[in-house]
Request: fold
Amino acid sequence: MAMLDSKVPEGSIENKWTDYKNHINLVNPANKRHIDIIVVGTGLAGGAAAATLAELGYNVKAFAYQDSPRRAHSIAAQGGINAAKNYQGDGDSTYRLFYDTVKGGDYRSREANVYRLAEVSANIIDQCVAQGVPFARDYGGLLDNRSFGGVLVSRTFYAKGQTGQQLLLGCYSAMNRQIARGKIEMFNRHEMLDVVKIDGKARGIIARDLITGEIERHSAHAVVIATGGYGNVYFLSTNAMGSNATAAWKIHKKGAFFANPCFTQIHPTCIPRSGDYQSKLTLMSESLRNDGRIWVPAKIEDAKAIQQNKLKPTQIAEEDRDYFLERRYPAFGNLVPRDVASRAAKERCDAGFGVNATGEAVYLDFANAIERYGKIEAKVHNITNASKEKIYALGKAIVEEKYGNLFQMYEKIVDQNPYETPMMIYPATHYTMGGIWVDYNLMTTVDGLYCIGEANFSDHGANRLGASALMQGLADGYFILPYTIGDYLSNDIRTGKIPTDTKEFDEVEKEVKDRIDFFINNKGTKTVDYFHKKLGKVMWDKVGMARNAKGLTEAMAEIKAIREEFWKDVKVPGSANEMNPELEKAGRVADFLELGELFAKDALVREESCGGHFREESAETDGPQKGEAKRNDADFAFVSAWEYKGEPADAVLHKEELEFKDIELKQRSYK
Reply:
C-alpha cells in the first residue's frame, strides 16, 4: 500500500505551526495580483477563505449554488463556536481544547492538525467581534460562554440560537468588501461539476450556470473545495436539501483520496420523524442540553400509555422518570458527546421506552431549569416567598432569553409549547467527520487542489464535539489556508494566466455534457427522489447508528443494485438549457449512490467501534464500560484513505498511521 505523506512539521506540538509559518515560502504582494484562486462553496470555510485570500491580494473566483453566499448551510448552525480563551476562569487552555477534541473524536484524528485548530481558535473570536458578530455577553459586558457536550469547561461562544447565521453574516460582509473592490468575482447559482487537471495539477473547474444551463470553463492556479459534508446520503438528515457531495466526489474520482467515509455523526437532539412525506429533519441545538434534562419513563407501562396518547409526560412523577444519561454517565450527565448520547437514546427506544407514537423519541425537559432560574431571579430581585407562578414567570424569561428562537421553532413544527411540556427529540444524521483526505497544508493528494471545512476529514476523528464545526471552518478559511496555499503558489508567480482552450478542458467539459445529455434523454419511469429515498433507507437501516458485518455486506449489494436501476430507469423532466432542479438532483444522487457503497465498504473494513462508527461485534461485554464502544488500537489506529478505481467495491485502501505522542491513547470514559 502506498504511504500517505501528511507533511506534519517536525518539532514539539506547541511549536509546529509557528515554526512552519516561519519557514514557508511567501508570495510577494505585487505578485499576488497575478495569481488566480477558485473557491468552491461560500459557507463559513469557503467564505472566510475567499475573503482572506482576496484581502491578501489574490484574484478569487467564488462559486455558490445558492442565490447568495449568505444562504450557505452554515447559516443553520445554532449553538455556538468553541475557542480556548478561558473567559470563565474554569481551567480551559489550548491544550485542554486539543485534548477534548482528540478524546471526543475517539483518538482517530491527527494530533498536529487538532493542536493547530485549538491554537488558532482564540483568533477566530477576535476576528468575528471585529466584524461585528453580536456574541452574547454577560452582566459585565464581557463575552459569555456556555458548555457543550464532551467537555468539563465553558468555552462555547454563542449568539442566542443563531450563531451560524451571525458568523456567516460577518463572513459575508468581509466577502462583500472584496467583491466591491473587484478582488472576488462572485458566481452565484453556479455548480461545479468537475475539476480540470493539467500536468497533474488542479488548474480549473467546469461549472454549470443553474439559471441558463450554460456550461462554463474557469481556470486558476489553485482550486479550493469548501462544499460541506455528505449527510444527505441518508436522504433524511438535518442538512439542507441542497447540501450535496458532488464537488468532493468529483475530485475523488480525479485522484483525491476519500478518507474515513464511515465516520458520520448522528446528532441526539433532533425533532423526531413524523411521517414518510418528510424531506429533511430539524435540529434542536446541543446548547439545549445545558439546561434540558433527557429522560424516558422508568416503567414500560407508562411508556406504552404515552405512545397511545393515554398519558402526558407531565403526569409522570419524578421518581418514575429515568434520566438515563445522568444515570449512566454521572461525570458528564446530559453533556456527554453526541455519539454517546445518541446510542443511549436508541438503546432506550429499542427497549420499548420511546415516547411518541412511533416509539422513536425521548424527552428533553426544561421544567427543572425554569424553576432553578426562577428561584435565582427571585433572590436577585429580592422577592421573598415568591409564588410558584412568579418563579415560573421569572425562570421562563431567562430560558426564553437563552433559547427563545429554538423553542419558537419547535412549537411551530410540533405544535406543542416546550415551556409547558417536554420537547421530544431523537437522533438524526447531522455531520460527516469523514471527507477528502488532506495533509497538514490542507492539500489533497492532487497538487494545487485544497479542501477545507466539513468537506475534508482532518480534525474531528470519529466524532465531532458540538460547536467545533464552526471553529474548524473559520480556522481553515481565515487562519490556515491563506498561509499554506501561499507556500504552494510561490512556484506559480511566473506561470501566467491558465488558458481554458486546451485539450484538458475540452475532455472534462465533454464528460460533463455527456452526463447531462444522458439524464435529459433517458426514458426512465422513476423520479430522482424515488432512488434517493431507497438509498436513504438502506443507509439508515444498515449503515446507521449501529452496524454489523452482515448488514454492511447486504448494504453494499443493495446500494449497487439501486445504482444500476437508477442508471436504467431514472426520469429527469425538462431540458438542460434552463433552470432545472431535477437535473441538479439527478447528478447529486448519482454521486451519493457511489459514495454510499464506499461508505458501507469503509464501515465493513473497520472492525472496531469508535466514535460515531459503532460495530455491534465490537462492544465492551463486562465491567463498568459494558455496552460501550470498544476500539481496536492495535489494528485500526489509522486513517482510511480510499483511492478511486472505478466501482466503489474496487476502491483501494491506503492507511495513514496515527501517532499519539502528546496524548495517551486510551479508552474513552464519560462515566
Q: What stands out?
A: Residues 388-414 form the longest helix (27 residues). The longest strand covers residues 423-432.
